[in-house]
Each structure stands twice: as structure tokens, then as C-alpha cells.
Design a protein that fits this description.
The mean pLDDT is 98. By secondary structure, the protein is of the alpha/beta class. It is built from eight helices and eleven strands. This is DJ-1 family protein.
């Protein structure tokens, strides 16, 4: 079973965490939501929404996953980018050839700016937050979801379901993504 870690820092965009997490779980992936920079498992998202994570990031930061997902939203993205343990965790996974995914502001501020892993890569992000992709040597696309090697990026809340399906396709198979899409009335 594929192991997935979704990073949740205070101020993340709820749709960008919940939609991909739900779709990946429907596909049979072992998905854990990790609370980053919090004392407990509750994480305050944007828009007054609260979620309860499965694990504390501090407790799993030395583990290896098949896929690491960074939701966007502000200040959630800035909180991920400012956490050196998160930055090293993402860089380690990318270097090992594991799937690394980010959506909204996270491709620019986390993957490109903080981790420096977008050089020579194509990626997309939320308009106005995707600049760091180009500034660090990457190429910005306007696709809803962009995959370049082991890096998968997406634009924002409205593309979070497409993002989740793209993660299933990359992690498991195109057939499984189609099956989940059909069951969720996304196809």
C-alpha cells in the first residue's frame, strides 16, 4: 500500500488538503495528515475551519513516504516554508525520487523558494504566487495540474479535485484514478 503524508500547517487552505486526502484514501492509499508546528493534532485552517491531524510531523519527520503533499493557503504555505524540518523532509524525498506535490501558493513558496527543487522543472501555482517558480529557474504553466518527473503541482482550491486524481494516477494508476473519479461523480 502506498504511503502518503499530507502536511498541515496553521492557515492552510481546507479544500486543498481535504479533497486530495479524501480521493487518495478512496483509492486505497495509506494517507496520514501531519500537523506541522502545533502542540497537538488540531490544526486551524483558513476560513475558521479546524481539522484534526492523524500524526504530529515531529513524530514522523524521519520516515519515508511514497508521496508528500503540501497544501497552499495563507499563512499555511509560509508556515511550511519557514519550517526547516519540513524543507529538509521535502528535499530528501525529492532527491530520493519520491513523488512531491504542492498546490496553490505552495509550489512557489515551498517547493521553489524554500526547497529550491523547481530549477529546470515545469510547474503551476496560484496566480501571483507562482513567480518564485520562474525566479528559481523553473517554468510556469497555466495548466490545472502539471507533472514534471516526480514533482506534481496544481493551481488552487478549484483544481484540488483534479490534483487529487492526478496524484492517484502518479501513485497508483490511471485506471484507479478513473475508477475513483467515476465513483465520486468527477467523470
Amino acid at each position: 500500500m502506498s504511503k502518503v503524508l499530507v502536511l498541515a500547517a496553521t492557515g492552510f487552505e481546507p479544500m486543498e488538503l481535504v479533497n486530495p486526502t479524501d480521493l487518495l484514501r478512496r483509492a486505497g492509499a495509506d494517507v496520514k495528515v501531519a500537523a506541522v508546528g502545533t502542540e497537538g493534532l488540531q490544526v486551524d485552517a483558513a476560513h475558521g475551519i479546524k481539522i484534526v491531524a492523524d500524526v504530529l510531523f515531529a513524530d514522523v519527520k524521519n520516515e519515508t513516504y511514497d508521496l508528500v503533499v503540501s497544501p497552499g493557503g495563507m499563512p499555511g504555505t509560509k508556515n511550511l516554508a519557514a519550517n526547516q524540518d519540513v524543507v529538509e523532509f521535502i528535499k530528501r524525498h525529492e532527491k530520493a525520487g519520491k513523488l512531491v506535490a504542492a498546490i496553490c501558493a505552495a509550489p512557489g513558496f515551498v517547493l521553489a523558494q524554500a526547497c529550491g527543487i523547481m530549477k529546470g522543472k515545469k510547474g503551476c501555482g496560484y496566480p501571483g504566487c507562482d513567480g518564485p517558480i520562474a525566479e528559481t529557474g523553473g517554468e510556469i504553466t497555466t495548466d490545472a495540474v502539471t507533472r514534471d518527473g516526480n514533482i506534481i503541482t496544481s493551481r488552487g482550491p478549484g483544481t484540488s479535485q483534479q490534483f487529487g486524481l492526478a496524484l492517484i494516477e502518479a501513485l497508483i494508476s490511471k485506471e484507479k484514478a478513473a475508477e475513483v473519479a467515476k465513483g465520486a461523480l468527477l467523470a
